[in-house]
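Bench log, entry 3. Co-assembly request; chain sequences pasted below exactly as received.
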Amino acid sequence: MQDGIQKLLSPRELTGLRNLNIESRFTVEGSLQGAHRSPTHGFSVEFSDYRQYVTGDDLRHLDWKVYARNERLYIRQYEEECNLRVYLLVDGSASMGFKGDAPLSKYAFAARLAAALAYVTVQQQDSIGLSIFDQRTVCQLPARGGRGHLRQVGNALAMHSPAATTDLAQTLHRLADSVQRRALVVVLSDLFDDLEPIHRALAHFRRRHHDVIVYHTMDPAELEFPYDGMGRFTDMETGEEMLTDPLEIQASYQEAIAEFLHSCRKACAGLDVDYCFAETVESPVELIRRHFARRKRR
Amino acid sequence: MPVFLTPIYLLAGLAAVIPLVLHLVHRRKPRPMQFSTLRFLRAASVRTRRARRLNRILLLAMRMMILLLLAMAFARPMLRFSGGLPHGRRTVVIVIDASASMRTLDGGEPLFEQARDWAYQVLESLEDGDRVALLAPGAERARRVFPPVSDHGRARRELESLECGFFAVDFPGELRQLTQDMERLDRDAPIVELHVFSDFQVANWRFAENGGLLEDQAEKLVVFLNRVSTEFPVNAGIVSANYHPEAVVGDGAFRVNATLRATSGYDVAPHVGLSVGDEEQHSASAALDGRVEASVTLFGRPNPGAADDVHGRITLAPDAFAEDNIHYFSLPRIDAVDVAIVDQRGGTASLSSARTAFLRRALHPGGAGSTIFKPEVLGRTVFMNSDLSEFSAVFLADFSPVDAEIVQPLRRFVEDGGLCFVFPARSDDGTTDWAMLFPDGNAPDNITIERLTVPETHVLNNGAKTTALERTVRSILPFPLRLTVERRVVMHGLPKDAVGFMEYPDGSPFMVEIEHGLGRFWLVSVAPDREWSNWVLSPLFVVGIQEALRSGLEESRGAREAVVGRRPTLVWPAPVKEVSAVWTPPDAPGRTLILTRQELARPFELPVVARPGFHHLSVGERRFVYAVNLDPDEMKLSYLDDHAATNAFGVGRVVMSSGWFEQEARMADMSFGRPLWPVLLMIVFILALIEILYANWLSRPHHVPSEIARLTGGIGGRG
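Structure output for the full assembly:
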């Protein structure tokens, strides 16, 4: 029985994610493999995991108890060594439940994308946290590593059904306050809310020196509006209705959407937020692969 | 305001609401669809609201208009213009050209018959209550039904009985008179339809090309010009003939110079024959091939034993217009015209006198048989004892003095119709006592003789009033005419009725004609010898003498030829003002006439001749034959073109047609107006095309904004 991430990603896709690395553009120091310097010291540092001793590791962190038990040398890992904490903020509002002609709804796609990111993060021994929200936070998992945590993340993503309205800005502000340490914040949303509050919320994250990635998730039908014949359109979040002939407004709709996308991109660029447009017909693996390659080139 | 011929189809216009109903129905049944957010839909809807409404209205309007216009087209709307025919009772005046040229054959049928058949169609188009008049200018009785009547049967019968005439017609005059009479007799008719059936021969429509014909009736008239004419008139005819001599002397021969005229397409050299009575006596070929005019000379002689005037025909092979292929002639038959030349010396001296010789040569320029004049030279004594009534003219070649002994008989001779030529005498020593001839004062005031030591050359000019004789002489002789004169009679202060023939530069006449009684005196300024001038050696001598003599004799004898439409005359020397005569036209019974005249000097006028041919006149024991021919203008077959015919009228509504069907269609246009359905169908076609193109344009693939194209086509997006 599939569990966790396996509910969202196929083994093949997981295989395709193995060699990827997710990195923060701003917390470069301490990300060298096996040579993590934590900017923080003392008992507030939390034990996170063991790893095998390799020549050169600091012997102060050798776990003698494990050696006594198993006669194997293991180094205790602390959180400040996994200094990349990745927080996935997934929009689970009703609008994310929209599915045009694409195989997946926007939420399903975002969930797969989030699952892929979580897998990559855990693979590289970093921490992954998750928040699924609509007008409130529906699910929150702290940033941890390990397969068990990864499984939890996968299950949480798979179980959620998009509903309710969204208050993206408010939620982002709350999450910005809750993430204490510098982290990589990944927002997966359609951003269908007032852009100015979202902009301020993203700025909030940036003021706290977080690296932010926005995966702007949209369905092709939302881009092209490829309908014909009179239609009574119902807003999935508010329930409001509107009668219109799609052919009559298609061109104008596309212009409005184009302006919205441009505004989003511009807003993100102004905050040095990494903006990536994600269309639901794409493969999340490929998307991540291209995106990471682009991030590395910068 | 258009009129609909089949208004029932307007009901189909109700189908125009179908697009509206479909539009409304379609709006009420939209598909329900979930969408992530209406935010951008609303924004787009607001932006495009006005344009969408306009597009919807435009498309709807076009579709409704298409159906509506189609229904209207089926209803056959007709648009009347202000120049149309009014509805209601019609007043129709049919004017059918019955002039001679309408006898021209077109495809074997006379143009007149074509016109008549066409006129029947117009009659058939009349309805109860409509009135009709019928006129046939050119026929013997032109006004057949006038003023307009409601009895269409009567008009039809008159039309059936109509025969084409031989007259030339003054159409502009006829139409003006007609419309004036209409105005006077029928003021109530709001609009008069004038249907003119004619070949529009130029000769019959003279002055029409000046335009403005009937313009004072423009408001009331609608003119239909119905042209019947041959498309390619090919015709030759005999337009005139000159006879030498102009009267047959005894059984003497005569010569005819006939002038032929042909249309430009005539390309044969026809044979022309001369017949006297029923006997063809001579024929010749006329060189008409490729030429418009030619002449031919024929010879004839009277039939032996025939006592009447010599009459016959000059004939040409019949063609499309046969009436001008026969030229009738009638030559008076006389013994001769006796002319006395009086030389006072008499005897052999007179016979050998130069003056006598020159005069004899002038009277017989080609020998004895060449003219009708038979000169006899008389001395004074013989002359005094002769019966002057035997002579038609007297030449006083050398006679002096002019005393009472000679004056009395001369005056009587001239009073009775004779011609007297008076020349200066040899013995004139400075005066010529010609005043003796005119005791009643009808002589020039001042008559002197001018003697020059050195001869002078004078150029003769026309007299103050150019006479027919001067015109005749000018047509024969080349001008200017010069005379070298040593002596001449200078005359001034001519009598009021005197007519000069040519004049010297100082205004003195060369010859003067003075009427006296039924005849006339000719006073000549130079003698008929070389001592006075070189006149006798110039062509003017023979031509002047011959033509002066001929013109005087013609007036005293009377012409035997006439033109259709004119009145022939009978010169009757007897001093009576009334005679009874029997007048017999060709192919008609004779009728008795009482001929009257106001003055003895004037001839009797005969009835207007209506047809060509021989018309016979009997007055007592005398028999005369008049040869009547067509008016030469009728033979020209030259037609007004459509533009000229239409513009001749100052009327706004003039319709030219070449056949009944064409006229009927034009009348329908004017009655009902122009059909609008072609215009409507064209509009429907254009609207449908616009609707298709516009609808396609609206549903065309729009340009995808670059932002979207970039995202869906580049990194981070699809593909």
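Residues 714-719 of chain B have pLDDT under 50 and may be disordered. DSSP finds 15 helices and 37 strands in chain B.
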